[in-house]
Write a structure and sequence with these properties.
By secondary structure, the chain is of the alpha/beta class. It has helices spanning 19-34, 52-55, 67-70, 116-119, 135-146, 191-197; strands at residues 7-11, 38-42, 60-62, 78-81, 99-102, 124-126, 157-159, 162-164, 170-172, 176-178. The strands form 3 sheets. A 6-stranded parallel beta sheet has the order 3-2-1-5-4-6. It has a two-stranded antiparallel ribbon with strand order 7-10. A hairpin with a 5-residue loop joins strand 8 and strand 9 (170-172). The radius of gyration is 16 Å and the shape is globular.
């Protein structure tokens, strides 16, 4: 029987953890805890020093093992959020899966198909639409569909929002976000300030 509490897993495939990912992971951990579920970072390098903002993050589990090893006896209950999957995520998938797996690089621009490494391990896949999302947005959308029972096409989105850097400058975010009640994109706390402070570096230096 399927559990109402779910586990959201990011397979952290990189040896480092930049400020962008730190803020995303903290947001995922906080929102997952509020939903009564768990958030796991798997395949974490033992040499990785956890950023301060993640040290006391609620519902966060750090795993040095790969997701394949952790869930080798529950592989059929793991859903890989995969942009190349043949079908989209549906509310009914809550009865089929208990673990929802993300590649941890969904926020790359341009998107790199590093989810392919997980796809090759044979996990069943579902996609979240055709527009690239940040990792925290993908987790948020998945949680809305699976735990809040909101259909994928009933969620309010905002695509490629423009952020005002200063009086004379703005930057367009190359991702899809969930829209809040004020028509603004939902982003992790501190993300806008991070983007503004590092606007001259380009997104590639933030992950």
């Amino acid at each position: 029987m399927a559990s109402t509490a779910k586990t959201y897993v990011v397979e952290h495939l990189d040896p480092e953890l930049g400020p962008w990912s730190s803020l995303e992971y903290r947001a995922i951990a906080t929102e997952t805890a509020e939903a009564g579920s768990k958030f796991c970072l798997s395949s974490v390098s033992k040499s990785l020093e956890l950023p301060k903002e993640l040290e006391n993050a609620p519902a966060l589990l750090i795993e040095y093992r790969s997701v394949e090893e952790i869930y080798k006896l529950k592989k059929d209950r793991v859903c890989l959020l995969d942009p190349a999957a043949p079908s989209e995520l549906h509310v009914e998938d809550a009865a089929l899966f208990d673990i929802f797996l993300f590649g941890g690089i969904l926020g790359d621009d341009p998107p790199r198909d590093r989810t392919a490494e997980l796809r090759q391990k044979g996990f069943k896949g579902r996609r979240l639409g055709s527009v690239q999302m940040t990792t925290d947005t993908a987790a948020r959308v998945t949680r809305m569909v699976i735990q809040q029972k909101v259909a994928l096409d009933q969620i309010s989105y905002i695509d490629y929002p423009e952020l005002k850097i200063n009086k004379h400058e703005s930057t367009q975010m190359p991702f899809r976000y969930v829209m809040d009640e004020n028509g603004k994109p939902i982003m992790p706390k501190g993300m806008v300030d991070l983007i503004k402070s590092d606007s001259e570096k380009g997104f590639g230096d933030l992950f």
